[in-house]
Design a protein that fits this description.
The chain is of the alpha/beta class and 452 residues long. The chain folds into 3 domains: 5-152, Alpha-D-Glucose-1,6-Bisphosphate, subunit A, domain 3 (Alpha-D-Glucose-1,6-Bisphosphate, Chain A, domain 3), CATH 3.40.120.10; 163-356, Alpha-D-Glucose-1,6-Bisphosphate, subunit A, domain 3 (Alpha-D-Glucose-1,6-Bisphosphate, Chain A, domain 3, 3-Layer(aba) Sandwich), CATH 3.40.120.10; 367-451, Alpha-D-phosphohexomutase, C-terminal domain (TATA-Binding Protein, 2-Layer Sandwich). It is 37% helix and 21% strand. It has helices at residues 23-36, 53-66, 79-88, 125-134, 151-162, 184-190, 219-227, 255-265, 280-288, 300-310, 333-347, 351-356, 376-389, 429-451, and strands at 13-16, 42-47, 70-76, 93-97, 106-113, 146-148, 170-174, 194-198, 232-236, 243-246, 252-253, 271-275, 292-296, 314-316, 322-324, 367-370, 393-395, 400-404, 407-413, 419-426. A 6-stranded mixed sheet has the order 1-5-4-2-3-6, sandwiched between helices. It has a 5-stranded mixed sheet with strand order 8-7-9-10-11, with helices on both faces. The two termini are 38 Å apart. The relative contact order is 0.09.
Length: 452
Amino acid sequence: MNIADHIFRAYDIRGVYGEDLNDDIAYRVGRALGTFIGGKGSILVTRDVRRSGEALCRSLIDGLRESGIDVVFGGITTTPAAYFGLKHYKTDAAVAVTASHNPPEWNGFKMVLKDGTTISQGAGMEKLREIIKSASFIHSDKRGGFREVKLVEDYIAFMRSRFKRMDGLKVAIDYSDGAAVYIVPRLFAELGMKVIGINDNPDGFFRGHVPEPNEETLKPLQRIVVENGCDLGVGFDGDADRAVFIDDRGRLLTGDMALAVLVKFWPTRGKIIYDVNSTTALREVAEANGFTPIEWKVGRAFILQKVREEGAVLGGEKSNHLYFGDIEGTDDAIYAALTMSRVVYDAGRRLSEIVDEIPHYPTTPILTYDCPDSIKFKVIDGIAEALQQRGFRISRLDGVKAYAEDGWLLIRASNTMPQVKMSVEAKTTERLEELKQLGETLIKEITSKEAQ
């Protein structure tokens, strides 16, 4: 069987159903994962709302059971609910059949081991790929068992136990026609919250918009928040591991700003993990409130691991993943939405007022530039050398980040595409433009030089 290498991604297996992925590959994933964990034990399987999910799940489960694995099936739910179920049902691994925020024709497999490790590049993905491609599967004398569990019910009960009622709090929600719709309306109602929901049809077609909450797709939600006098808005992605927040004035918060809001009200002091793209204001807020901020690499696998290693109380990425130490570092968007709601409810103040207390520095969005995979890391090395020669303080934690007294410039190679990416922040718009122009000039010059 011809299996494309590009479906084995940094944090999961993912591709277009019918082109990159099919039911036979799903069966092989099941056989390989069963082999990976030794042909014994149990694995929780869930899926999101995608129309290919039922067939992929069926084949995946068949492969797992053929390898001697007992399957615990949690049905259609969010990816964080699968993380919860892994611990709750004490299985040896969990597989969420999902493509998260990708368009409807995509699907894939997120795999987590019982110690919380995500199977990812450098953490088992290479071994799993070899087992799948070589079909070197374990042979079991006994076919594994199968049982269904009420994961959604158990997850809702857990969430309800962690949060007090927030009677009368009005929240607008864009479900992105995703899996959050199976949990949030009931859970929020049971906590006394008033919900105005849109894009709540989880039929797998994503008719409202692609399941990616961003500045473009969330414009209707922003209007609804303002027009209905909501306390806040929340946009979930397809599998509800990311939540994008809207304040009561209709302004979208990036993940680093949302984390800064939580830090201001977090009851337990400790370490805060955030990615290199995050605003300097986050570090300033953390230090001012008695926390220890730690800057780290971009990407869920890196931030999650660091949150757990450091025993951090909170973590976050600008991409709107938020991590919570009190649920073993997991990035759970529903937990994040309830936590932000709790902050607003307990503070008795407008979210916009809290946001306005946080410094806002001019910043660019993440800018992308084409750069061949064969040279992109050499290009980053050349840019680092050039910036150092210009007197900048340099960090090579993730790509190259150049610090000045009045701003910073980050250039890093894409993990998945033939691109380099740049982010810039400065104290003034004039300085922002200077740093941006410097970065673009270096990218073009050094890419051209390395391509020769």
